[in-house]
Design brief:
It is a single chain. With about 270 residues, the chain is an alpha/beta fold. The chain has ten helices and twelve strands. The chain has a five-stranded mixed β-sheet with strand order 4-7-8-9-10, sandwiched between helices. It has a three-stranded antiparallel β-sheet with strand order 1-3-2, with helices on both faces. A two-stranded antiparallel ribbon has the order 5-6. A hairpin with a 2-residue loop joins strand 5 and strand 6. Helix 2 crosses helix 4 and helix 5 packs antiparallel against helix 9. It is globular and about 65 Å long.
Length: about 270
């Protein structure tokens, strides 16, 4: 199983219709832009409205295998690596590749990553507090007398209002969260007798359906949220890589309004 398959908790057989469709779509995408360099996660996000991330990833590998695109692994200063891909006809790709890697290096810095994770939680905490939700726990796996003991996992927050309790998990990342963790956190909330709520930049529709069936809610932000102090970096990531990032001072009123509307139906 590849790294991407492990992240999404998926196993695959022969290509299905959606993967074949994605492969054709991406082949045309590269034909239309023959002098740009991309990286795998970027392509997943750019095409997520048409295809799940894992389908795009598989389609990219198919195009590599057939020779339509070229690829190269680049090691970042953090020790991790990213796969760069470009149209097979782009001979002088190195300058574009170096410029892309420079931006990725900057936002992949561990200090930036830590800041984004903490900032996402802070934004959510402020948004729920502003709407009169009471925090009943933070980084916890206990609610009342009930304790989750099957694993060491916990929830970012537990909020209460109008007799309802919600287990909140925040993922301020470009990619999907780990599929196994997603299912586990639903079970964790169920064991505590609270409703699961995931605040994420993006989730697959099939996961959102699973969450709805469990009585939970997906508060999809669509943007990765940067601190206001990092707005210049956010602008470069958005403008140079085309990725959905933003640096607002608080969660948009419309974002919390979606949750409040759903909350009202539960009470």
């Amino acid at each position: 199983m590849s790294d991407i398959d492990e992240v999404y908790g998926k196993t695959f057989g022969p290509p299905d219709e959606r993967e074949i469709e994605a492969r054709d779509h991406l082949r045309q995408f590269f034909n239309d832009d023959q002098e740009s360099v991309f990286f795998s996660r970027q392509l997943e996000v750019l095409h997520e409205h048409q295809y799940f991330h894992w389908i795009t990833n598989r389609a990219v590998r198919d195009l590599e295998a057939e020779g339509s695109i070229r690829s190269e692994w680049r090691k970042l200063s953090t020790g991790t690596s990213i796969k760069l891909v470009w149209h097979r006809g782009y001979r002088f790709y190195r300058r574009s590749a170096s410029r892309l890697v420079s931006v990725v290096e900057e936002y992949s810095d561990p200090n930036i990553g830590a800041a984004l994770g903490l900032h996402g939680e802070t934004m959510v905490l402020e948004g729920f507090a502003r709407n009169r939700f009471l925090m009943a726990g933070r980084n916890t796996r206990q609610y009342g007398e009930k304790v989750w003991g099957q694993t060491e996992h916990d929830l970012d927050f537990i909020f209460e209002r109008d007799g309802m309790a919600y287990g909140i998990e925040v993922k301020n990342t470009l990619g999907y969260m780990d599929g196994k963790e997603f299912s586990l956190k639903i079970r964790l909330c169920r064991s505590l007798g609270i409703r699961p709520v995931f605040v994420c930049r993006m989730l697959p529709k099939s996961w959102i359906h699973e969450l709805n069936q469990s009585g939970g809610f997906a508060l999809v932000l669509k943007y990765q949220l940067y601190p206001w102090t990092h707005r210049e970096l956010a602008n470069r990531v958005r403008d140079e890589l085309g990725l959905p990032v933003d640096a607002p001072r608080s969660l948009a009123e419309g974002t919390m309004a979606r949750f409040l509307k759903w909350h009202a139906k539960q009470t």
